[in-house]
TrEMBL record:
Pfam families: AP_endonuc_2 (PF01261). Keywords: Isomerase. SUPFAM superfamilies: Xylose isomerase-like. Residues 61-293 form the Xylose isomerase-like TIM barrel domain. One of its GO terms (molecular function) is isomerase activity. The keyword Transport does not apply. This is Sugar phosphate isomerase/epimerase. It comes from the Bacteria. The keyword Acyltransferase does not apply.
Length: 310
């Protein structure tokens, strides 16, 4: 059904009247050169409370934060779903504010490392609609969760199979499928951060075995649970298509309390990484808006891709 809707939208042209959307010279320079994106989860409180709408995300990223690339979160779409008309509105908003859609972070669509074959296949199929949405929006990738329940060997084997299948589908659409070290929903409904994918050794081994050109990693600074985060980033950097620069709290100097940004960016700077780094504030103590600005400032301070003022 999604394919027929997308076909319909490709036939029916929608005229967008661009009013007052001319880029300033500084914006023209920043947009293509600076690969900083904004993870929508940074604003999940505002969206879930109704203070902000998913469709307004591109405008907020550009006008309030000077960020011209966005990472959507599937669960922040209305009812965790969409139709072609909704996607067109989102695409129009991006075009109006000169924002690049880079990724959809997909949650609650089943465990790709499920050791029950039927459940694993259902999880793979559940992700297809988000690949189609990402293709329509002009994204570069979808982010998936690489978890399951069972022995490491069994979960790993199931996850490798799922990633190869999704990688084949993504290749047809010119997309990447990237795994984030992430928590998992337990059978009782609770959330457990200490999941299969939160271990850098396990996840990097899966990626090495999958060995698919359209499959990669999205290391998140804050989601390694009991595994050393610096080792985890080091494990995943060779496979990284993107990075989530997670923050929770800041000290009086504006540095992240939980993560040594200089230490972690020394590794990023020494690697061959050339993707987007996403601003993802998930803490408290400051507002979402202030947390986003402070996280962006840390990326600009330590990432050598960003030109520094003389």
């Amino acid at each position: 059904m999604m394919k027929s809707l997308l076909l319909y939208m490709s036939i029916v042209s929608i005229i967008w009247i661009n009013t007052g959307c001319t880029l300033t010279k500084s914006e023209e320079k920043q947009q293509p050169d600076v690969k900083i994106s904004l993870a929508e989860w940074s604003l999940h409180r505002a969206i879930k409370s109704g203070k902000m709408d998913n469709l307004d995300f591109p405008r907020v990223a550009a006008q309030e934060f000077g960020i011209y690339a966005v990472e959507y979160v599937s669960q922040l779409f209305p009812d965790n779903n969409y139709d072609a008309a909704y996607l067109q509105q989102l695409k129009d908003s991006c075009e109006r504010y000169h924002v690049k859609s880079t990724m959809i972070m997909v949650d609650h669509e089943g465990n790709l490392g499920d050791t029950t074959e039927v459940a694993r296949q259902i999880a793979v199929q559940n992700h297809v609609k988000w690949l189609e949405a990402a293709e329509f929006l002009g994204c570069l990738s979808i982010r998936v969760n690489g978890n399951g329940f069972g022995t490491d060997e069994d979960v790993s084997a199931a996850l490798v199979k799922s990633m190869r299948e999704l990688g084949d589908l993504a290749k047809e659409k010119g997309l990447m499928v990237i795994i984030e070290n992430h928590g998992v929903s337990m059978p009782d409904g609770s959330w457990n951060m200490n999941s299969f994918s939160s271990n850098g050794t396990r996840l990097s081994q899966v990626l090495a075995i999958a060995n698919h050109p359209n499959v990669g990693a999205l290391p998140d600074f804050g989601n390694f649970a009991d595994y050393d985060k610096y080792q985890g980033v080091k494990d995943l950097l060779p496979y990284s298509f993107g990075i989530s620069a997670k923050t929770f709290r800041f000290d009086e100097n504006g540095e992240a309390v939980e993560t040594d940004y200089k230490r972690i960016f020394d590794m990023v700077n020494a690697s061959n990484f050339d993707g987007y780094i996403g601003v993802e504030f998930e803490g408290d103590g400051v507002s979402e808006h202030e947390g986003i600005k402070m996280t962006k400032a840390l990326i600009e301070k330590y990432w050598d891709r960003i030109p520094k003022e003389q």
